[in-house]
Amino acid sequence: MLLSSNRELVNYLIRNGVLKSKHIIDAFLAIDRKNFIRPGHEFEAYGDYPLPIGEGQTISQPWTVAFMLELLDPQPKQKILDVGFGSGWTTSLLAYIVGEEGKVYGIEIIPSIFEFGKNNIAKYNFIDKKIVELKLGDGSKGWKEYAPFDRILVSAAAKDIPEKLIEQLANNGILVIPDKNGIWKIVKIDDKLEKEYYPGFIFVPLVEE
C-alpha cells in the first residue's frame, strides 16, 4: 500500500493492529521513513513494502519493522544492539525510544551501506548526542566490549542464531532475529532461553565474514 505522509503510514499501522505501544508509535511519528530512502524512491517512502538501498539490501517494510519493534519491546534508558542497521531507520527509531540516557550500538558490514545509514542517522543528531555509536563490521559477532545488551535487534535472516549474540544478551533481555522463513523472539532468563516463532516473513540474508 502506498500512502502520502508519515502520519498516514503510522495511522495505517495502528489501524491494522501491528503498531500498539505508545512509545513506539511516538518514535514512528518522530522518525520519518522518507529520510532513509535512496534518491529516486522518495515518492514510495510511505509504501508498505521494502525498498532497495543498494548492494542487494533493502529498507524493510514498515509493517515488518513495527512488528519486530513490538516484539523487541525497547524501553527508555536501555542499551540496545542493532545488527545490520542498513538505512539507519531502525537505529533511529530505537535511539528516539531509549533517549539521552540510553544507547544504541549499530553494526553494518557493507561499507557503502554503512555510510548511507550513518548519514541518515546523523539527520537526527543521534550521533552528535552520543545516543548512537556505529561500527563497520560483522554484526553476527556482536559488540563484546559494550555487552551485555538489554535488547538485540537483527534485521537480516541468519542461517543459525549466532551464539555470540545470545552470550551478549543481558538477563531478562530480548533478542529479535529473523531466519529465512520468519522471526524469532528469544528471551534470556537466568541463562535459559524462552523462544517464540512467527512464520511468514522474508528477509535479505545476514552478511557475515
List keywords for this structure.
alpha/beta, two-stranded antiparallel ribbon, Rossmann fold, 6 helices, 27% helix
Structure described in brief:
This protein is α/β, with parallel strands linked by helices and 209 residues long. The chain contains six helices and nine strands; from the N terminus they run H-H-E-E-H-E-H-E-H-E-E-H-E-E-E.
Description:
- The protein is of the alpha/beta class and 209 residues long.
- 27% of the residues lie in helices and 26% in strands.
- The protein has a 7-stranded mixed β-sheet with strand order 5-4-3-6-7-8-9. Strands 1-2 form a two-stranded antiparallel ribbon.
- The chain is globular and about 45 Å long.
- The termini are far apart.
- The mean pLDDT is 94.
- Beta-strand content: 25-35%
CATH topology of one domain: Rossmann fold
Number of helices: 6
- Cα-based radius of gyration, to the nearest Å: 16 Å
Walk across the major sheet and give the strand order.
Answer: 5-4-3-6-7-8-9
- The CATH superfamily of one domain is Vaccinia Virus protein VP39
Largest sheet geometry: 7 strands, mixed
Q: Share of helix among residues?
A: 25-40%
- Shape estimate: globular
Q: Low-confidence parts, pLDDT < 50 over ≥5 residues? A: none
Determine the N-to-C terminus distance: 36 Å
User: Which class of secondary structure composition applies to the elements?
Assistant: alpha/beta
- Overall pLDDT level: 94
* H/E element order: HHEEHEHEHEEHEEE
Can you name the CATH architecture of one domain? Answer: 3-Layer(aba) Sandwich
Number of distinct beta strands:
9
In the CATH scheme, the class of one domain would be Alpha Beta
